[in-house]
Amino acid sequence: MYRLYGNSGMANLAPHMALETIGAPYEMVRVDTASKEHQGATYLRLNPTGRVPVLVDGEQPIFETAAILLHLADRHPDAGLMPPVGTVERGLAYQWLIHLTNSVQVAYLAYYYPERQVADAALADSVRQAAEVRAGELFDLLDKALAGRDWLTADRPGIVDFMLLMLTRWGRNFAGRPPRLLPNIGTHAARTAALPAVIRAFEQEGLTQPWY
Ligand SMILES: N[C@@H](CCC(=O)N[C@@H](CS)C(=O)NCC(=O)O)C(=O)O
Q1: Which CATH superfamily hosts domain 2-79?
Q2: Ligand 1 atom 11: residue of nearest CA
Q3: CATH classification of 88-195, choosing from 3.40.50.1820, 1.20.1050.10, 3.40.50.300, 3.20.20.70?
Q4: In sequence order, which ranges of 118-158 are alpha helices (DSSP H)?
Q5: Closest CA to ligand 1's atom 5
Q6: Which of 15, 1, 2 is nearest to 205 (CA)?
Q7: What is the Cα–Cα distance from 201 to 45, expressed in whole angstroms?
Q8: How far apart are the C-alpha atoms of 94 and 206, rounded to whole Å?
Q9: 102-145, pLDDT tens digit by residue?
Q10: What is the distance in A from the centroid of ligand 1 to the CA of 101?
Q11: By CB count within 10 A, which of 27, 74, 125, 134 is most buried?
Q12: How many CB atoms lie within 10 A of CB 115?
């Protein structure tokens, strides 16, 4: 039995898609981030970074979205959420998952929490604008990588696609160029968001259309 802690549309969304795809029993536990529940002692015992999400597998908490996704894919190989170990496709999946978490997600964290990047709060708007530009550059690269492909790393959808859809969604309110407007990102998002398990995750998190 798993427990996934998170809040609507936050970084728990991709693991939520994975759990719905796998079909193993799990409980979604809502963390009230508005009242800073994720900074409280009870939550910090599960995830000492004070961020969402955290997955509890049995008694063991695992934090970091990409690690949770990889763990779920490993635990349920029959779900085919990662290419087989030792294949070139697996290497490509590692490449993109780490890029998504290490570069794209980092740009988003600067976009959503710009005040944390600067000592002078007056500079926060400028940080946010720069983060949107940086995310846009990274999405241009992802759009190229998707040319001629249905899924980012394999011939079937997997955790990397779930992570990409979640990050595509996070840019839906960009002032300039939301990622969905890029041709391949847009079709990838539509394709992934049409999967029944993904639809269930969106709906269970109470997310209303447009999803990305
Ligand atoms: N690298 C971490 C980042 C987690 C993260 O920053 N989560 C955001 C939500 S998407 C969060 O906890 N925000 C609340 C806060 O920072 O106070 C992961 O992927 O798990």
Answers
A1: Glutaredoxin (3.40.30.10)
A2: 51
A3: 1.20.1050.10
A4: 124-145
A5: 51
A6: 15
A7: 26
A8: 30
A9: 999 999 999 999 999 999 999 999 999 999 999 999 999 999 99
A10: 11
A11: 134
A12: 13
